[in-house]
Amino acid sequence: MASSTRCLIAGNWKMNGTLQESLDFVQALGENPAPEHVEVAIMPPFTLLHPLASPFREKGVRLGAQNMYCETSGAFTASISPVMLRDAGCHYVILGHSERRDIQHESNALIRKKMDLAWEYALEPILCIGEHLEERESGSTNAVLKEQLAVLAGVDGGVPLTVAYEPVWAIGTGKVATPEQVRETHAFVHEELKRLGHDCRVLYGGSVNPANAADILACEGVEGALVGGASLKADSFTQLIEIAAKVA
Ligand code: 13P
Questions:
Q1: 97 a catalytic residue
Q2: Superfamily of domain 7-247
Q3: Can 134 be counted among the known catalytic residues?
Q4: 205 CB less than 6 Å from ligand 1?
Q5: Pocket flag, ligand 1, residue 174 (CB < 6 Å)
Q6: If pLDDT is split at 50, 70 and 90, which confidence band does 6 have?
Q7: Cα(76) to centroid of ligand 1, in Å?
Q8: Does the beta carbon of 229 sit less than 6 angstroms from any atom of ligand 1?
Q9: In ligand 1, which atom is closest to the CA atom of 208?
């Protein structure tokens, strides 16, 4: 892990969590959940952003959103804008998650439009990239990642940015990339980012849990994790932070 970047453990709650469950989570996190050299963030569903902003701030946990729309306001029923995310206290916004790309057919062009708007409103995008199983098996992983990272073409290297490499076949499946696959792919992602003029943090995501986190976080080029299922319970999320504090 690069010494200039702080390891980030980020919990993507996806479409999970009621108000009461989230307040119980906050309470169970304890007084001081984020150690000095590990950054901790949670991306709850939109409905929980406002109520969680202050309790998370008090605990040093950063708030993020799971998506946003590519306009600031107007007649876009059911959409949430970057202005609203800032108003709710968000620092991060996840963009390009494979569940958005696959289920909602989000294109690279749309993702870039959202990224530009996120930067305009001082949000830090967590750009998700990752290949499907067939793509890995046919040897086209790097080509897929290269195409997804091409959304950064022409973007100033100084913008706030985190990239999350999440192999689609590892998301919610319990299958984790081997340390060798993680090392190799992260090396490629860092190299490609460098070629595009960016030197940002790269997280790993996909079935990260307390049993496999130490091996993943120890891999060269991994600077944190984007966690789905294991971020829903305060005890497993806390364990992940503790593991990161030892390994990072
Ligand atoms: P899981 O940790 O549940 O596999 O989800 C990973 C993910 O998609 C995080 O964005």
A1: yes
A2: Aldolase class I (3.20.20.70)
A3: no
A4: yes
A5: no
A6: confident
A7: 28
A8: yes
A9: 2
Cα 118–Cα 124–Cα 127 angle in degrees, nearest 5: 90
Give the start-to-end residue ranges of the domains of the chain: 7-247
Q: How far is the centre of ligand 1, averaged over its atoms, from the C-alpha of 176 (Å)?
A: 11
Return the number of other C-beta atoms located less than 10 Å from residue 222's C-beta.
Answer: 24
215-237 pLDDT, tens digit each: 999 999 999 999 999 999 999 99
Q: Both tokens of residue 49?
A: 């952003």
Mutating to test ligand 1, I would choose from 171, 207, 209 the residue with most ligand atoms within 8 A of its C-beta, which is: 171
Query: Ligand 1 within 6 A of 207 CB?
Result: yes
Indicate the helix (H) or strand (E) that contains 40: strand 38-43
Residue 238 neighbours by CB distance under 10 Å: 17
Residue with tokens 């963030």: 41
**Gap between the Cα atoms of 145 and 84, Å rounded:** 30
Indicate yes or no: pTM above 0.90: yes
Cα separation, 248 vs 185, whole angstroms: 19
Stretch (H or E) spanning 12: strand 7-12
